[in-house]
Amino acid sequence: MKGLSRFFFGRKLPVAVDAERGLQAAAEWLIRAQDAAGDGGVSAYYDAAKRRWAGAYPETTGYIIPTFFRYAEASGKAEYYERAVRMAAWESDIQLPDGGVRAGTMDAPQVVPTIFNTGQVLFGWLAAWQHTQDARFRESAVRAADWLVAAQDPDGVWRRFASPFATHTVNTYNTRVAFALAKAGTELHEPRYLEAAVRNVQWALTQMHENGWLENNDLEDNDRPLTHTIAYAIRGILEVGLLADSSHFVEVAGRMAHAVAKSQRGDGALPGRLDSGWRAAARWSCVTGNAQMAIIWHRLATQAADRFGLDAADRAIRFNLSIQDLTAADMGVRGGMPGSHPRSGGYMRHRYPNWAAKFFMDAILLQQEAN
Hints:
mainly alpha; Glycosyltransferase; two-stranded antiparallel ribbon; 56% helix; 4% strand; disordered N terminus; Squalene cyclase C-terminal domain-containing protein; 6-hairpin_glycosidase_sf
């Protein structure tokens, strides 16, 4: 562990970077990812080693939709609005008959509904309904939310319809699904959805250690969860707390976010995995997790008057900007965000996932709103 400590705390901040340029480059990369899929959805990732794009990914296309609507407003570029609507229409076209959203990419061998993916696309349909008032998107959102409520067990856990491509079937990071349901409850004026969201967070908190660390919170290794899934869980708890007016949920999310901040490296990166003592458990950094935690620290500052993390957020964003390649000849790399840094790290090795670019954009947009 001493070696890891030296690795994570012995570096200085990266050189000056241009956030606006980085934001635009990430947006343009996501356009290329959508065009590469060719059907309205967004390619899951670009594999830099094989130099090829993956199939369209319903889950993450779903939550890219609100990011594109937001960027359209911030940039004044109507193309992003139009692309967001196209993504939402594609999601409605492929929604399963029971209301759920399929696991994996469109070329996955199994076509089965899964809880987490349905929750993430719910964000997209809600945003599309809000911006267009097209009844089709409201209908898709209602069907998805109804399916999620029906699939939930009485104690708030989702035990059925786990992804066949994940190792564990019960996950505390499903609070990210609860967040989507809580948002649906508020925007569609349906109390059942908010109640289901609160039940899930209440269950998740039964999995919490005294220091705020959560059990069952990783895709593969629950003893050393990714900062990516840690951030999913924290954000879900925080946002459900805000929507349900639960100061307890917000306080717990803040305590967890404080704990993660203590692991931040001198250059602004977070270790890719953290153990149950909130200690670095990987030498590489999960780039998506860096951006997600920056979002959480900004949300705590603006919504809960907890400004402790603003410096940590700025440093995490600055780190991600510093590793973004804006001049690569390979257009699958230029402007994208790698899964890990270094790129050979343990998460999405040598790949550029669309969700890394999405959360990177969200973090910069929040930073710009705060300044």
